[in-house]
């Protein structure tokens, strides 16, 4: 039986996509208020769980069930190009699912629960019969929750030795998940033709290019404004103002994105999204300060 090369397997698992959940996990760790030196082995294991395991699983699952769409949009990918032969893409998705659950089980019940939910969402997003990605609202929500909220909760829970995070941490995890819905939409502008042909109702297909761009911007900005208001109410004025500054910078950059969304979606992902995730870390340090003070 022909087997894929290690480089092809790595390409299928897409290491470049691991950064967002690993970053969100780190934000949850910071927000927990627990000194990092005390539990650094848990930190390392959690980062591996968020990126090379759960996120990598979602990439393998998506590429397998998207192979017909990718043959139109991105035929160079491992499966449509033939470099990932037979059903190897599916076998890797199954194997990584099991490995992810085994690792999560070693990190406590909350981590296992979060990982299991994330993996269920990954399969539901791509695989029939649900295939949530056929609806841009549901599909992007599943991705955003998996990449940001669940990763944040996992980080906070692991550092707290299995306890559920503080309600403030849960609130920010949810808000940044909502904001990440807009980030997910940015990725859909490059695949409009293939999505339309294959009946995938991404927001650019459903709302049109201009409508989807405006929706993405609103989804990214509104939760961050809520985060700033909450931080102010909790007494973290400096961090609240820092988040406001980042929001203003993003809004200014969005003006260029809205002029030509298909052309500038990648540009905004490269320059605007880092400001979004910077706000996540600022907010996490605010919660850390509150935890230490209490």
TrEMBL record:
CDD domains associated with the record: PT_UbiA_chlorophyll (cd13958)
EC numbers for this chain: 2.5.1.62
Pfam families on file: UbiA (PF01040)
Membrane topology: Multi-pass membrane protein
Key words, A-Z: Cell membrane, Chlorophyll biosynthesis, Membrane, Transferase, Transmembrane, Transmembrane helix
GO molecular function: chlorophyll synthetase activity
Cellular compartments annotated: Membrane
Keyword set includes Transmembrane: yes
Enzyme class: transferase
Transmembrane segments: 12-34, 40-65, 86-105, 142-164, 232-253, 265-287
Main location: membrane
Protein's name according to its UniProt entry: Chlorophyll synthase ChlG
Protein encoded by which gene: chlG
């Amino acid at each position: 039986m022909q087997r894929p090369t290690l480089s092809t397997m790595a390409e299928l698992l897409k290491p470049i996509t691991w950064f967002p959940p690993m970053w969100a996990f780190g934000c949850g760790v910071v927000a927990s208020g627990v000194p990092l030196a005390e539990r650094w082995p848990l930190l390392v294991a959690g980062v591996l769980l968020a990126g090379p395991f759960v996120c990598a699983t979602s990439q393998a699952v998506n590429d397998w069930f998207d192979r017909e769409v990718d043959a139109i949009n991105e035929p160079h990918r491992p499966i449509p190009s033939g470099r990932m032969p037979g059903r190897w893409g599916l076998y890797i998705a199954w194997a990584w699912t099991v490995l992810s659950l085994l690792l999560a089980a070693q990190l406590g019940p909350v981590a296992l629960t979060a990982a299991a939910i994330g993996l269920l969402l990954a399969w539901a997003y791509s695989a029939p019969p649900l295939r949530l990605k056929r609806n841009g609202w549901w599909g992007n929500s599943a991705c955003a929750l998996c990449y940001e909220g669940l990763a944040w909760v996992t980080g906070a829970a692991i550092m707290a030795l299995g306890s559920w995070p503080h309600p403030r941490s849960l609130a920010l995890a949810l808000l940044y998940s909502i904001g990440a819905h807009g980030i997910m939409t940015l990725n859909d502008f490059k695949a409009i033709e293939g999505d339309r042909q294959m009946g995938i109702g991404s927001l650019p297909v459903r709302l049109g290019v201009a409508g989807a761009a405006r929706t993405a911007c609103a989804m990214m900005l509104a939760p961050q404004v809520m985060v700033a208001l909450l931080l102010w109410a909790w007494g973290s004025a400096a961090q609240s103002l820092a988040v406001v500054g980042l929001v203003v910078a993003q809004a200014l950059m969005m003006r260029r994105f809205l002029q030509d969304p298909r052309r500038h979606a990648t540009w905004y992902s490269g320059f605007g999204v880092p400001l979004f995730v910077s706000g996540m870390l600022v907010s996490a340090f605010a919660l850390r300060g509150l935890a230490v003070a209490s």
